[in-house]
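Tokens as discussed.
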């Protein structure tokens, strides 16, 4: 692999201050006798070698639990990836948010189908077009018509203002008065929906979203490696890398750049490791620990016209994507941000859970180019699915 590791990212972002080496983490153990352990590790190593800085994967199947890592989480300091290393999961945060909303709905704390205007301060309700007709359900399945704040103007502002740390108010100002379509008539994925969903949850509970997430999910499931800390840099996680030109020459994504490019909020604010993600996915899909069968059915009801070829999803429910691949059908989500990509999938027919965290991303995230995203969607994930799901 041709790896260029520097702290300068883009001219507009300026120079990042040196960061210390990524530290070792507390080892997580899995079943060393797993029947496919050698196959899974070999598959991961082959997919990472010469193409990615590092990757951490987990597969829970009928033979038990396998976790493995390959490559490095810090190229400059030569720190090998371990299964206990944490990474931001970006938009996969949305699945946690939707789960919290469904828990609160089942308890009668809020309604998925009431207009959100009643849960928003007057100035926010006025800024969001059609807030008197948009419901929480529409936010969760992206049928609200609210545009995403992450547009070209947003990223240009990031480049033009080094060190700028955006707020939720900045994001809401960026979409003031705008609407893509009449609420409930179409689907368009956008992170602003989940900023607003977080506001609804806060108003309904009278508590900060961070507290609600901790009390409803993180503490009950003992997700000790999972954190949500908007507005500040995560501690003790992998170094992220950007492949600027699709040629496997990576540059470090600095924390200032990361914070300026991605608003840490209920749309993309969680960092975790593969084992905690599996525990969450299994509690959500394999048991009634979080949701009743009725609530889970609500979550899995797909929005209209919600297929997303870029992520190979055939539909979108409430905070979850639906996939149908040659190797199997799954529910889950993906996440991508400045130097990281993440995936968590549950295959109900096979009862298999698969998680992948990668400390790399590209400025381009197309499926027909040489981006990190294209490699993950087109090669890494299919290889892991074949290893786990295809009978041998």
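Sequence:
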């Amino acid at each position: 692999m041709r790896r260029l590791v520097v702290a300068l990212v883009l001219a507009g972002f300026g120079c990042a201050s040196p960061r210390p080496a990524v530290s070792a983490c507390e080892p997580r153990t899995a079943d060393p006798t797993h029947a496919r352990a050698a196959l899974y590790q070999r598959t991961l190593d082959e997919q990472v070698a010469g193409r990615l800085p590092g990757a951490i994967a987990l597969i829970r199947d009928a033979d038990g639990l396998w976790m493995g890592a390959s490559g490095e989480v810090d190229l400059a300091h030569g720190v090998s990836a371990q299964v206990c290393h944490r990474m931001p999961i970006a938009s996969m945060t949305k699945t946690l948010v939707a789960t919290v909303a469904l828990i609160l709905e089942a308890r009668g704390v809020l309604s998925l189908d009431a207009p959100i205007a009643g849960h928003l301060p007057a100035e926010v309700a006025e800024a969001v077009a059609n807030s008197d007709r948009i419901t929480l359900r529409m936010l969760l399945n992206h049928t609200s018509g609210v545009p995403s704040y992450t547009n070209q103007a947003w990223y240009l502002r990031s480049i033009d203002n080094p060190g700028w740390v955006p707020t939720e108010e900045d994001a809401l100002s960026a979409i003031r008065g705008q609407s893509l379509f009449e609420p409930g008539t179409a689907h368009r994925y956008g992170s602003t929906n989940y900023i607003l969903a977080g506001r609804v949850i806060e108003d309904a509970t009278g508590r900060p979203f961070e507290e609600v997430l901790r009390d409803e999910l993180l503490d009950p499931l003992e997700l000790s490696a999972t954190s949500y800390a908007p507005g500040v840099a995560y501690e003790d996680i992998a170094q992220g890398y950007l492949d600027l030109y699709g040629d496997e020459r990576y540059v470090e994504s600095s924390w200032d750049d990361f914070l300026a490019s991605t608003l840490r909020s209920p749309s993309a604010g969680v960092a975790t490791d593969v084992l905690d993600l599996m525990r969450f996915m299994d509690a959500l899909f394999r048991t009634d620990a979080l949701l009743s069968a009725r609530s889970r059915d609500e979550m899995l009801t797909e929005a209209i016209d919600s297929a997303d070829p870029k992520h190979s999803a055939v539909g979108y429910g409430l905070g979850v994507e639906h996939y149908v691949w040659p190797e199997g059908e799954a529910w889950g989500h993906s996440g991508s941000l400045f130097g990281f990509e993440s995936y968590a999938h549950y295959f109900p027919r096979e009862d298999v859970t698969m998680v992948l965290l990668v400390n790399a991303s590209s400025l381009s995230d197309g499926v027909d180019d040489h981006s990190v995203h294209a490699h993950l969607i087109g090669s890494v994930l299919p290889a892991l699915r074949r290893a786990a799901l295809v009978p041998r």
